[in-house]
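From the pipeline queue, job 12 of 40. The input is one protein chain; the requested action is below.

Action: predict structure.
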Amino acid sequence: MGVSGRPSSELPTAITFNGHPSGGDNHSPTAVNDTATVTAGESVLINVLANDSDPDGDVLTLVSVDTPSHGVANVQSGKAYYKPVAGFSGSDAFAYAVNDGRGGKASASIGIQVVKPANRAPVAVNDTATVTVGESVLIDVLANDSDPDGDALTLVSVDTPSHGAANVQSGKAYYKPAAGFSGSDAFAYAINDGKGGKATGQVAVTVTAAVNLPPEVRFTAPADGQIIQQTALAPVAISIQASDADGSVVSTRIRVDGQVFTGLTALWTPSAFATYVIAAEATDDDGAVSAASVSVTIRKTEPAPTGKKRIIAYFPQWDGWKSSNLGVPGAACLTQGSLDPAKYTVLNFSFFGVAKDGSLHSGDFRNKQIDQPGEVQEPAALLYADPYSSYDLALLLGEMEIIEWVSVGSAVETRLKALGYVWDNSARTWENTRRGIGGAYPIVAPKEGGLPGLFDIAKTNGIKVMASIGGWSMCKHFPETAADPVKRARFVEDCGKLIRMGFDGIDLDWEYPGPFEGMNYQGTNADFHNFTSLVRDIRAKIGADKLLSSCFSCDPKKLASFEWSEIDKYLDFFNIMSYDIDGGWSDYAGHCSPLYAASGKLSWDSAFKYLTGTLGLQAAKINMGLGFYGRSVITNGAAALGAPTVKTTRDFYVDGPVLSAADWDNFKDWEGTPYHFFLNARTSGWREQWDDTAKVPYRTQSKYFLSYENERSVAAKAQYVMDQKAGGVIVWDVFGDWDFSNASPAAGSVAGKALKYNNVKTPLIDALNSVFNGMPVNVPPTVTIAAPADNAVIVQDALTAIAIRVAASDSDGTVSSVSIRVDGKNFTGTAASWTPSAYGDYVIEATATDNAGASAVARASVTVKATTQVDPPVATADSVTLKINENVNVSVLANDTGTGIHLLSAEQPSHGQTTVSGNIVNYAPTPNYVGADQFHYTIADSLGRTASAQVTVIVEEQNANQKVFTFGNVTVTFTLGPVWGTNYQITGAVSGAAKGWKMTMNFPSGQKIGSAWGIAEPVSGETNAVRNNSWSQSDGEFTMGVSGQPGGELPKTVSFNGEGGGGDENQLPKVTFTAPADGAVFTRQTLSPIAISIGVSDADGTIVASSIKVDNQVFDGVSADWTPSAFGLFTITATATDNDGGTATAACSVLVRRESGTASLVNGWPDYIAMGAVTLTDESHHVGRPVDAVFKYDGDGGNGDRGSIKYPIFTKKTAEMARSLTGKYGMNVMPVMVVYTAEMSGGTNFEDLWDFDNLTMHFVNLIHTCETLN
C-alpha cells in the first residue's frame, strides 16, 4: 500500500490478512472416529480433536460427549474423559460433537475397550530386630511391606539364619539366637499376595548381651510425710525392704541426719526437733544401685500429762480484777501467785484478739463496743505494758518492779542489762529484747526475789504455756484474716512474735468457722478451707517443736465441714468445748455439760463418738471440755430439769443487750454464770440433785435452776477420758474451783499484781488428777433435810418442839457422823427435837461427814410464827394481756400475801376457759375472741383462811392494724401503715402464692390515691409478694377481689376503723384513779376513812357500770369512802363496763401505817431502825456479813447502842426507805423484816444508808413485794 502527501512516509508498506475474507462461505469441520483402551477401575482422557480437521483452518472445540452405556464421560480440558463403572470390562462407546466457532459442526464416536488389570507383585521391605542373648523374638515383617493392588499379604517362609533358628509363627518371623551367641545375624523371608504375586525381604538381627535389672528398695517405716511427736528426742525406728528381679541384693544402707546405718533396719535418735529426709540405698550382685527417700517431721509435744492425760487449763488475763464481791479475798487473787503447776500440763493464756488488719492484740485492748453493728477492732499492741491498767506483764513476767528512771552505773542498770532490757531515758521507752516486750515508761521488770510469772513457772515445772487467740468476743476478724493472704501473713507474723516472747505454742479459739453467727459477724463455708490455710501457715512459722492446737464446738453441725485430714497434719490436738450445751439462751432448763444425753441431744459422749466414729479422728488427740462454773437460769414456775425458761433482756458486759434467762437474781455480779467456788459457798435454800443419766448434778430453788460440776461428775468425766483413751481435757477456767475459804495470804502484793495465798483448795482439779493418776476419788456424802421443808412457815400457839429429820448417805463409803445445828443448839444424829427460843426466822444446818473426811452441808430456812402474828391471806387483783387465739399462764399468787398460801380454785370466764395447775391458772380465750374477759380465783393460807380476787384479761388482735384473709393456699394480709405524704399507707402482702391467681383492691370513689393497682401474679415458686398504695382514709371500707384461685371468695370487705382500730369492734372503756395516788402512804393513829375516786370514759359508747373493790369491800359508782380493816398494804381495783359489754380495770396500791408515837401498838418498839453488821455470835450464820435484818435499838438510835431482835417490826422510816427504793432497782418495794435472835452491837443509822449502796442493795435483795406486816 502506498500513501502520498505525508512527509517522511515510507513506501511501500506490506499488509497481510489471514482468515476468511469478510463475507466468504464457512465449511463444516470433519470429525474422525476414535478408539481408546482403559484398565478396569481406571479412567482415561482422549484427545478426540487430534485426528479431526477443518477445511477453513478454523480452530475446533470439543463441545459435548454422549453418555456411554458402561461408564461416565464428560469434557475436561478440551478432551473427552471416560471411566468405566466398577467391575465392568469389555467394549463401550459414546459420541462426541465439535464445532469451529463459526457455526460449522461435526460429530463422531469413540470406541472404548475396557480391559481387566494384571496382578502386580507385592513389595517387601527389609527389617531389623534386636534380641538379648538366650531370648527369642517375634518379628512382624509384614508391618512395613505392601501390595500395589491392596491384596492381603502372607508370610510364607523364612530361611535359616547362620547363628540361630527361625520359623513362621502366627504370621510373624520367629527368631532365637544360638546358645551363647551375640552379634549380627540375618535371614531372608518370602511373602505372597495370594494371586501369584511374590516378594522377598531380609531381616537383620542384632543379638545383645544380657542387661542387669537394678534392685528395688522401699520404706516400710516411717511413712513419707509422717509427723512424729516426742516430748524429748527419742529413737525412731526405720525399716526398709529391698529385692532384685534378676539377681540378688548384696547390701543396703540408710542415711539420715548425718548418720549412716547398714542393713534393713535402723534405730535413729534425731539431733533436733525438725524435718528430715531419710535416704535408703540397695546394691545388687551386678553392682546396680537403687535409692528411695521419705520425709519425716519430729515435732515436740507437751511432756507426759498428769496421769498420762493432758490437763489444759485456760488462764484468762482479766480474772485478776475480780474482787470480794465475787467471792475472793480481793483483787490480784486470781493470778498465778496461788497456782499449783503440778496439777496441770498446759496453761492457755487467754486471750489475744484479732484486729481488722490481721494483727494480734492484748485482750485489754478489746473494743468494748464490738457487739454493735459496724464496729471493728483497731490494731493495738500484743501486750498492754501499763502496769497500772493491765495484768499482762504481771501474769507473764511475775511480780513487778516498776522503774521510772535508770541511772548510769546503778545496780538497776546492771540487772536490767542482764535481763536483756534496753531503754531510752530521754524518749522514755524500753524493750526487753529477748522477749520482744516493751512500751513507754515506767519500765516493768520482774521483781528480784518476787513471785515468778507464767513463763518461769512453766519452765521450772516442766509444763507449757500457750497463747490462745480469739475467744467469743474477739473473733470478728478471723474469717477475713484467714481468707486474705496479706492479713493472714500479718497474723502469722504476730504468732511468731508470741513464740519469741516465750510461749510454747499457739491455740486458736475461732468461734466458729463456717456459716454460723459469731459476735457481730456471720461466717461462710469458705472459712473451713481458709482455716486449713491458716493452721498450715502457723505451723510453718513456729516450727515442728512448738505446740499448735485449736478449740472446736461439740456440735456436729459445726464440725462436719472441716478439712480434717489436712488440719490433722498441723495440729497437735483438738480442744472440744463440750460445755455450754444449755444455758440462758435455752428455752428449757438443761445441763451445761452432760456426760450422756438422750439420742439426738448434745453431750460429751455424742461429741466424742462423732469425732472418732464419723470423722475418724485419733482419740489421743482429742481433749474434752470441762466447765468449772455453773449456769443458773430462771424458769417459768417451779424449777426443774426441762422446765421452760423465762427470758428477759439483760445488758451483758461483753455481749451487750441479749434476751436471756440468766439468773441475775442470785448471781447478778456473775451474770448468771458463777465460778464453782462461788456457787459452792452459797448452798442455802438450794436443793441439790443428781441426774444419773447425764452423770451431772444440778440445784433448784423456787424458780431457779443451776447446772454445774462437782467432784463426782468431774471424776465420771475423767474416767470416760481414761476408758475412751482420749488425750485429756481442757478446763474453762483455771481459777474456777479455787476455794479461798480457809486460805491465808503468803506473799506478793496487790500493787505488784501478783498475790499468793496458802491453802487454796482446788477440789475439781484434784478429782481430775486422782482419776488420771489411778487413785480413787472420794465422793462426798449427800445430806438432805427431810423435815421441816425448806422455807416452811410453822405456826404455833406457843413455842413447842419441832421434829427435825435428816437423811445422809455415801456412795463410796460410809457416813461417819451427822450433826444438826439450829438456834444456837447442836444435835448429833439424823433426828432432833428442837424447841425454838423465840418466834422468828431460823436456818437449820445439817452436816454429814464420811469415812474419808469429806463433808456435805444442807440447809433449810424455817419461820416460826405465833398464831396471833399470822395475818389473813390477801388476794390482789391481777390483769394480763394476750393476743387472739393464744393462751397464758397466770401466776396469781405473785402479788398475794399470806402464810403458806396456795391456790384453791379459779372460776370459768365468760369468753374462755381456765385450767388450774398447782398455783398457776391457764387462761385460753374462745377461738377468735377479741375483747375483755375476767375470772375470779380463791386462795387459802396454812390456817385454812381464804381470799379471792379478780383477774382481768384483755385479748387483743395480733395486730390491730392488720387484716388477714385466706383463699385456698393463699394468704392476703393488709396493713394500715403510717401517713404516707398526706395520705395513709396501705401495704398488701401475699404469702403461700401459687400461679394463676390475681388480687385487686377497689376503693370507694374519691378515696383511692393514684391509679388502680393490684398484686401481680408471681412466678412459679415465689413465696410472697408485697405492694404499697395510698389511701385518703384512716378508717372505712374497701373491697378486694381474688380470681383464678380455687376456693376463693369474692368479694372480701376490708375495713379499718380509727387507724387500724378494728372496724366495727367495740373500743374498751377507760378507767383511771384520781385519788389516791398509786403507792400512797397514809400514816394515822387509828383506822379512819380514805377517799377513793375514779374517772371513767368510753370513746365509742357509754359507761353503764363502775365499781371500786378494796379490802374485800365493793363500792358501786366512781367514788367511795373506805375505812381499812387493819394497818397494812392494800390493792384497790376499779372496774368500768360500757354499753357493748367491754370491761376495763385499773389498780393502785396504798399503805396504811400507824403514826409515830403509837409504839404500844407495835409491841413497844420505838420508831427508829438501823442496819449494821452481825457480831461474832453463835446465833447467826451471817458472821461478819451485812445483817439481813432491820432491828430496833434499846437506846436512842445512835451508833454504839446495844440492841436485840425479838419481833418483826415496821416503822415509819422503814416505809420511807421502801418507798425511796421503789423503781431504783426495777422493784415495787415493801419491807419485810428478816430477823434473828442475836445480840447486836453498833450499826449504821438509817440516814447513813444513802451513802452505802451495797448495804442498800443487800437490803433490797431481802424484801418482798406487796407483803403486809403489823
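Job complete. Residues 34-115 form a domain with the Immunoglobulin-like fold (CATH 2.60.40.10).
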